[in-house]
């Protein structure tokens, strides 16, 4: 069977992970797909430099989502992709990070398969991996953490979900989309038994111009996000591996208690 990247094979979709923003983190296969695409359906968190690899005559369609506004509902995005593929186009569905990590890539693959159309997935460097690497923050470490969990911080029923055991000694917790709910997340983790003195990193705009890597303690997380005016995209990392990072210490208002907790 011919590769889906074969230019002779028409009418197909390729889900491509664009990485956390820096176009240098694109895979070779991702660049090849972008150069072949007739239509690029992209999210809002794709780094601007990534589009340099798209053909000048390709159609760019933004389906950017924000917290309170969706350009298109997911069902409409699925239908849009399927329609262009049925018209014979090579469609690249371009997603920030990796398509299968909080990118709804699974839903889109299901929709394309249900239409009996060919689909391929090209993984990308996830936000967690790219941002952590830039901050010199190892998500695992033989002396500090042997397990990593990835969770979404803005999902329905957050308060009812149990994260017990996901953070604490020997574990790292990475929270996507958690900036707006940072205070509630910190309260939730502490209520579930996580030490208030646990180190936390806030990685804002990782791999992009203006990126910031900040370090504090769990009990101070909500205050830090407010006083530093942290904005999305950003991820939160909870765990003692944060101490090994180059993240700037931002424990200001909480300094006295910090000395007792650390």
- The shape is elongated
- Give helix and strand order, one letter per element, not per position: EHEEEEHEHEHEEHEEHEEH
* CATH topology label of the largest domain: Methyltransferase, Cobalt-precorrin-4 Transmethylase, Domain 2
CATH architecture of the largest domain: 2-Layer Sandwich
| Count of helix runs | 7
Which SSEs are present, and which pair or pack?
Blueprint: E1 12-17, H1 28-36, E2 39-42, E3 59-62, E4 65-66, E5 69-70, H2 74-86, E6 90-95, H3 105-114, E7 119-122, H4 127-134, E8 145-152, E9 170-176, H5 182-191, E10 199-204, E11 212-217, H6 221-227, E12 234-238, E13 248-249, H7 255-261
Give a short summary of the structure.
The chain is α/β, with parallel strands linked by helices and 262 residues long.
Describe this structure in words.
- The chain has 262 residues and is an alpha/beta fold.
- It folds into two domains: 12-125, Cobalt-precorrin-4 Transmethylase, domain 1 (3-Layer(aba) Sandwich), CATH 3.40.1010.10; 128-261, Methyltransferase, Cobalt-precorrin-4 Transmethylase, Domain 2 (2-Layer Sandwich).
- It is built from seven helices and 13 strands.
- The strands form three sheets. A six-stranded mixed β-sheet has the order 8-9-12-10-11-13, with helices on both faces. A five-stranded parallel β-sheet has the order 3-2-6-1-7, with helices on both faces.
- Helix 2 (74-86) packs across helix 3 and helix 5 (182-191) packs antiparallel against helix 6 (221-227).
- The chain is elongated, with a radius of gyration of 20 Å.
């Amino acid at each position: 069977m011919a590769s889906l990247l074969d230019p002779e094979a028409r009418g197909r979709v390729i889900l491509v992970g664009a990485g956390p923003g820096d176009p240098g983190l694109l895979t070779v296969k991702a660049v090849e797909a972008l150069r072949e695409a007739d239509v690029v359906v992209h999210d809002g968190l794709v780094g601007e430099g990534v589009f340099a690899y798209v053909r000048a005559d390709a159609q760019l369609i933004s389906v950017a989502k924000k917290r309170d506004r969706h350009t298109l509902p997911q069902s409409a995005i699925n239908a849009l992709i399927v329609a262009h593929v049925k018209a014979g186009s090579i469609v690249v569905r371009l997603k920030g990070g990796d398509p299968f990590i909080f990118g709804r890539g699974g839903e889109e693959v299901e929709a394309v398969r249900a239409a009996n159309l060919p689909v391929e997935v090209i993984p990308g460097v996830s936000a967690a991996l790219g941002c952590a690497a830039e901050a010199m923050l190892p998500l695992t470490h033989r002396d500090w953490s042997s397990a990593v969990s990835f969770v979404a911080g803005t999902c329905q029923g957050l308060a009812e979900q149990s994260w017990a055991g996901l953070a604490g000694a020997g574990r790292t917790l990475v929270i996507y989309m958690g900036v707006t709910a940072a205070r509630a997340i910190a309260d939730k983790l502490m209520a579930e038994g996580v030490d208030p003195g646990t180190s936390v990193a806030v990685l804002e705009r990782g791999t992009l111009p203006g990126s910031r890597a900040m370090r504090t303690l769990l009990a101070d997380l909500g205050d830090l996000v407010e006083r530093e005016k942290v904005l999305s995209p950003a991820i939160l990392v909870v765990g003692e591996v944060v101490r090994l990072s180059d993240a700037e210490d931002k424990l200001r208002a909480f300094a006295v208690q910090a000395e007792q907790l650390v």
